[in-house]
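[job 4471] stage=fold_predict status=RUNNING
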Amino acid sequence: MKENIKKLEKLIKKSKKILLINHIRMDPDAFWWLASFYYILEKLKKNVVAVNDMLPPTNFDFLESSNIIKTDFDIKNFKPDLIISFDAASTGQLWETYIKNEDIFKNTPFVVIDHHMTNHGFWSINIVNPDYSSTCELTFHIIEKIWFTKYITPKIATLLTAWIHTDTNIFYNQNTTSSTLITAAKLMDLWADFRAPMYNFFQKATYEKTKLVWIVFNKLQKSDNGKIIWAKIKKSEFKKTNTWDEDTSGIINRLINIEWCEVAFLIHELWDEVKASFRAKEYNVWDFCASFWWGWHKLAAWFRTSKKLDEIEAEILEKLKKEKL
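[job 4471] inference complete, writing structure tokens
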């Protein structure tokens, strides 16, 4: 990894036009570390552009950085000298942007930065380490190694802190290490507003989202032994409460904290597919979700499917019962 960080440093120094990309349907970790790198590269007087097929969720707006993402950008005309991918475990997660510009990705220096265990290095320069709690923590390590710390403003420090809070569930999850806490302390010394991410991601709730949570909690189900807790949300319930996918954020974390629960899952309808989110206390939900052609982390994973809501619910429960849960 050290060698590849040095390669990244050299590429940044010699590149004038840099393209940043993160995975489709970005989460806080994917967005905030891309944004922090974006602002640092701007300070280095680079011509930097950030792209994705979709805009960030509206609950990211409090840090006033969502406008940096371009969803319909002419990459061929831009002709980047360097491409950096954040938090994506495969080219498949870069979606249409990659498919439409595959020749540019293949013929431009391309650096992959990620912390997911599913990423086995899908490009020539890979900075991948699953021991980090978040891509943010890994990014800060990279920033330190290439002497970019002096460019971190309070806003950038807050962006990095937001990633750590969401990926560790405010230092509660098992991926929290002493290194995570040290990184958070360093960011506080750089004047990060550590309270803003906590409030906006963990405490703040709209009236509409509160109504959605009420519906979910009133529909909770559990297995006979109480080890599996789950709920499902129909499109009609999103419409009834004037909510959508991003309003489900945080619900699954409440379910896994129910006494005796070992695995929790939340399934909900989207446009033409169903999303299933999982949390576990010890059981490897990454392996489980990989059987549905997706994954993420050992204790936190998800997948999407074209199957119907009731159909995928039955399939999940059948597989979990075979695991003797």
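[job 4471] summary: DSSP finds 14 helices and eleven strands in the chain.
[job 4471] exit 0
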